[in-house]
User: Fold this.
Amino acid sequence: MSASLFESKDLSHSLWKKVLDRAVSIKNETYSAPQNLSKFKVGLLFFEPSSRTRWSFEKACLDLSIPSMVSVVDGSTSKSKGETAADTLDLYLELGFDLIVVRSGQDSETLKRLQETNVPFINAGFGGDYHPTQALLDYFTWTNEVERNVSKILIMGDVAHSRVAKSHMRFAKIMGYQVGLLPADGLDLTQEEREDLKPEITFSDRKQAIEWAEVVMSLRTQKERHPEGASFKPFKALSADELNSDHIVMHPGPFMRGEDLEENLVKDPRSLIFKQKRNGVYCRAALISCLLEENQKEKKGSL
Ligand code: CP
Assistant:
């Protein structure tokens, strides 16, 4: 089986450690990518819109000198002629890439193809459930940008549709941090998700939740994933006067000023939002290079 990342538990703790250590070396400019990395080819297949994730994967490939091809599935592709996402993915899997990065909507056929393929891949966001590289870069950010140990992460807002929140609950079990939830009205996990993801603590009192937290992460309300006709009470934007001087503010992006967090928090000294964007490049470069290496070892082993 090839080494791929669909959800956090697909990689061992030791491989995650290696990825995180390598991301530190890339950040500190002490990592030199082996020359043979440039013999690999990476394809970036995006069925859903993206700025941060797509561009950071693209930049990571540039930094590693790995040739890459970006493919956005839109009206210019055979989607417009009725080709399904799963069939488009099938086509992509045949193009001969050494690794593909895929962002997809919730689609059981696409998921099935990913589960069956031998082409190594990285999940760059799947429906409302999985976004493991966001959890990676967030963890990297509070671990490397703050000069103290941080372990209590509060995630607030549209938890129901947040693949970031769900990915953190999975990654937390591997890396050993605590995730607290403050769901917006009507936008909590389902009972089934609760049993699966086992959130550490869920708050109904906002003040108590923020007092508990070291990192406060607000989320975008994902209206595009809401059931048609549904309307939810707007969530109160996170504001500076709710926080103490030690709080750390994060947001996976894209952030809505005045809806998810107040305008003045975006560049507040407590905000790591811009560090998250930059660290996304280091983490994704580290992950791509580690997975290519793992798969190379695997191939040699099977000769
Ligand atoms: N955080 C995140 O996934 O952002 P994009 O949708 O812009 O990639």
